[in-house]
Structure formats: structure tokens, C-alpha cells
Fold each of these.
Amino acid sequence: MHPSMQQRVDGLAAMRARTTLPPANLHVILGLTAPAQSVRYQVVAKGKAYHIIECATGKTRVFCFNYKVAVNTAQALEAAADRKAGRQ
């Protein structure tokens, strides 16, 4: 194979490998510092409802039919978890 074509194939393979890495490993490879605190709850649209999913378990904690209510609820859950963990 031509050397320039081989370089392209190798580069694409390296990028493809990075897409499957967890974010923590990607930070290490890129030489970046990981975020101090990750998000515990994520709002996801599922049909006509918005599910608030706990990122650690992948389970739905709450669902709402209004986006603003869902975001406010997720923020309240984050704040409650911070208070429980003593991270005020």
C-alpha cells in the first residue's frame, strides 16, 4: 500500500478507536484533566415525555411532560444529591 494511504488508514483507525473509549480514558489519552464532578441526572426525550435518567444506573427516576419542569426537577435532584454527599 502506498505510504500516504497507509498513514490515512492508520489515522482513521486511531480516531475510530477513540469513539468507543469511555470519557475518563479519553481524557487520559488526550492529556486533559477530567471534570471535577460528573452529571448524575440527564433529561432525555422519549416520545411525548421527558425522562430524568440516573447516569450511574441508567434507570429512569422521574418523567415529566414539560421540558422546563424536567430540567428543574433534574437540577433539584442534583442539588439534593450534593446536600446528601455534603458538597455544598
Amino acid sequence: MAGAGPSRIIAVRHGESEANLAHREAGDRPLVYGLGDDEVRLTALGRRQSAALGRLLAALPGGERPEAVWCSPYLRARETWEVAKDDWGAGLPVAVDERLRDQEQGAFDRLNPAAVRERFPEEAARREAVGGYAYRPPGGESLADVVTRVRAFVRDLDGPAGGRPVLIVAHDSVVLALRHVLETGADAAPHAGPPFVPVLNASVSVWRAVEGSFELVRFNDVGHLA
């Protein structure tokens, strides 16, 4: 990336959401959640996690502390930033970018995995055949689709980032896509997609710019939540 790109990228998954909690409580029972993906708010725990994130950001050394912020348009991500900002005491404006939204689930929207298996049993076999990176739910997006829009977003940081550390507040799919974009070539094959590790709520992943590329500093770190 050119010199005007970010000197450091800090990517954060939003704090625990009400949908995260509902899905966890449902366990293996089918669940149809009542709100759309863009409407879900943080839980009380999610707000505490976001406050802890703000304290972590405030404690970073000057050269590592974000000087610009980009956020998903979804409510839980914007709430995460607002709570973190208040605890940090930072006056940074936030730029909301549609490309940082969560992976669109199409026909699976509002359904937990058990409900998907109940309503779309044939899709499990199709997902196994095409692989988790390339699999696209009916009417939704694959993780490869998310990578495509996140790659365009990262490319467009060249200039607005101005050689500064930047913060991205988004979703697990976006964090995984960032890892793929920042650590592989633009022509990486689908099988080279990121592993499906659980990216934790309010986790922090950091990359630093080194000689025209990005080097992973830490991934999926939740030490600040202890």
C-alpha cells in the first residue's frame, strides 16, 4: 500500500449483542430472531465490553492510538464505538461505510444454525460441497463476497488514512475478511480463505504497515476484557 495508507489497522468486533445472547441461550433449539441484522442492539455485557475497549484505546502509546475511525452502519457496531469513545474521551469523528456491514445471510436472516438445518436441510450438503469460504446462502453473501468489498474498502483508505493508525469497528466476518485481504495477495484462491475461527465479541486485531504490506501484530485478542 502507498505511503498515504494506514500506518496501523486496529479492527474490532462489536460487543455482545442481544442476538448473540439469544442465539447462545437457544443452543441447539431452532430460533427465529425478531429483529433484522441492522437493528440489533448491545446487551449490558456488550456495553461493558465496549467500555473496556475504550480504556484499552486510551492506554495505547501515541504512535499506536487511532487517529481516524471507520464503522459498520449496523446499530450494534455504532453503539460499540459510541460507548468506547465515551470511555476513551476521544473526540474523533466516525465515518460509516456500508462495505463494513456484516455478511448478508439472505434466506437465513434471523435464523440460528438449528433453524437453518430444519428449514433448509439441502443447504448443508451444498455448503460442504463448495466450502465455507465460497458458500453463498440463498439470496445472501459468501465470505468471498465480503472479502471483495472489504478489499475495495482497504484500497480506498489510501489517502484518507493519511499514514495514521486507524480503527475499524465492525463484525466477525469483516475481521476475517481483513485478515485475508491484508495477509494474502489480491489473487489468492478461494481455498486460501481465512479459517473459520470464532472472532470474539469486542476482540481486537492489529496489523502494522511494514515496507508496503501489513504484518499481523495480534489477532482476536480479548485480554482487555479480563
Amino acid sequence: MDDVTIPDFNPEFLRLWIQHIAENNHKTVGELSYIFCSDEYILNINKEHLNHDYYTDIITFNYNEEEVLSGDIFISVDTVATNAEEYGNGVFKDELERVIIHGVLHLIGFNDKTDEDQKEMTLKEDEALELRERFT
């Protein structure tokens, strides 16, 4: 993998928070792998596996079995940092948590291909982010 610093986060908080979001959507959490990478690495994944030639903050590979969420979630720390400044509140941790829950929501079954889907996804992200303090 490329030389990327793994972001500082509390794994127990993430486990409890993600488990709660999954259970609220009638799912259980199986094996989730988070791969933190650079823009160039995620661009190569996007080209190779999805035939998309653009940078993104997250790519989620779904390995769900029935109601059990499982998958590989690639996150570009470069794009997360940029998006925190451009679209968020400037706090990397907040944007990282938004991206992490975005991947979980994809595994749950939410999409963001259309404008309507994007609005629903953003609403679900915002709802999940509001629940974070319960798990800290």
C-alpha cells in the first residue's frame, strides 16, 4: 500500500456507533475492513474496478450476506482532508466520520446516484452524525 498515515480514531466508538446505525436499519455488522489510502491509490482502484477515471473520497465493496453487513471500504485521506475544508466545518475527524458512515449506509442499501438519492443519503449521514455523542 502507499505511504499514508492512518487517521487517529477511537475504534470502540466506531464499533458501537456503526452497530447502532446498522441495527436501526435491521442489519447486523459482520466484517468491515477500512483501508486508508492516498488520492492516487483510490483513483487506481476506481479505474481498475469501477471503470471511473476520477478521484473520490470513498469506494465501498459490498460482501454482505443477507442482513449481515460486510465489506472493504477504501478511504482517501487526501480527499477527506480537502472535503473537510471545502464542504465541511474544516475538522478532519468530522469529515472522516461522515465518510465512514457513508460507506456503511451504502452497505445498508442506500445509494447516491441520483439527486434524490443524494439528498436521502445526506439526510441519513446527518442523522447518524447527530447520534455520535451517545457513543463517546
